[in-house]
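REQUEST
  id: r-88c1
  op: predict_structure
  target: YbbR-like domain-containing protein
  payload:
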Amino acid sequence: MTMNKIYDNKWLTLLVALFLALTMFVFVKAERYNDNPISFFQNVSENSTETISNVPVHIKGNVQNYYITGLPETVDVELSGPANLIQQTLEAENFKVVTEDLEQLGPGQHYIKLRLDGISKELHYKLSPSSVNITIAELQTQTYPIEVRVNSDQLAPDYAVGNVSVNPQSVTLSGSGDKLQEISQVYVNVDIPSDASDSYTTSATVLIADSQGQMLDISADPKQVEVQVDIQSNTNTVPIQFEPVNGRADTDYEIEPLTTHNTVLSGDPASIHQLNRVTGYVDVSQVTKEEETQVDLELPQGVTSMEPAQVRVKVIPHRQSQASNPTAASNSPSTSAGRQRSQEARSSAGRQTAPSQEQDPST
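RESPONSE
  id: r-88c1
  status: 200
  body:
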């Protein structure tokens, strides 16, 4: 009879059911947090703090015709509040840091505050920095050629830098008028690795500096350019061609190298690789018979050194015969005398024929 009264009591039944439900809930949660039972009780109402670094700053307002300096690209955000809510906020990634409406501010210097949008009202935040001094100026643009500065200190000794090309060759710079007037250097730095032996291609950041080398707060488009550096051997082996000088016209000179037929050129790669031979001039003015002599090789333009720079050669003179050298024969004393006697004979014959023609009346 008593049990029936209990079942008939609606409120008592609801309380018992609620108690059983809470008991089951606690049991299940306790199973999940059996390693740290205290965390179960903290899970519902736990507050925590989370720091997010390098959150981008978004500009509010149309500022396409303005150039803004002093505004950081990113800030650090600290969120505090319920841990579950912070976790959901981070996973959703719907928040962002925004400025005041810069279009409404216009040109000049301004002190502005940054704010965080897109988070729950139950969360609190701190920005670092939370306010900044900025300058808004009329936007101006100029185009500048790009200088490539190559550092080849790590390059192997037998290699050197050849042609250097950059794509694009110029860059568009944007900034305030007074900053653009300070531009003195627009360049990229390229470090050649030690194992480079053919050509080296890399991407480099455009740097803008004043005459003192100080970096300027100016935007470059593009910010990155492609640089190609040709790596060439700074040596070139070429044959030696020997030529006699100051020789006799009636003598041929045979020149035979005794030490080497080639020499190794060192210097500017663009110059040495255009050469296909080196000429050694042999003075044969005093050579009348076979003899050996030392020849100094002349250093071609663009070549810093060559090895060897001296070559020992054998010179063999070959005297030409008069039959094989008509020029020499015609200039010899005997030939000249014969030519003179022949002319005198023809002249004498002419004088003897003239009187007989005058005595013939029929003619």
